[in-house]
């Protein structure tokens, strides 16, 4: 399994993906729309159907750098799963975006009622979180450290 496949919605087994998708509602964002802001309450999340989304973070005294770009089948937002349910990054549509939107409380309730689903969703979001942390670290080092991230080729 590649890194990409462990962080898209396809990381979930088909039966878990189907249960989760029962709660999806279609939505869209215009190019340039802010999807959420760092520090705001995280009460939903999205899976990209089409388009691209940038994730950015506040850096005091500087313009917010883009730390990752997301596309088809990728999760927008993980802060909805972990208290205090506050966005740790910001997100903006880089192009017109169509996405599946999920109400966080409804998904958490579904997960509580189905422990195998809860475990699968938690592991999936945990892998996404670990990937985003590493990506953000490398991006910030590339931008602000004297010799860049030193990431392996």
TrEMBL record:
A Pfam family: cNMP_binding
Domain of life: Bacteria
Protein name, as recorded: Cyclic nucleotide-binding domain-containing protein
Domain Cyclic nucleotide-binding as annotated: residue spans: 8-77
InterPro entries membership: cNMP-bd_dom, cNMP-bd_dom_sf, RmlC-like_jellyroll
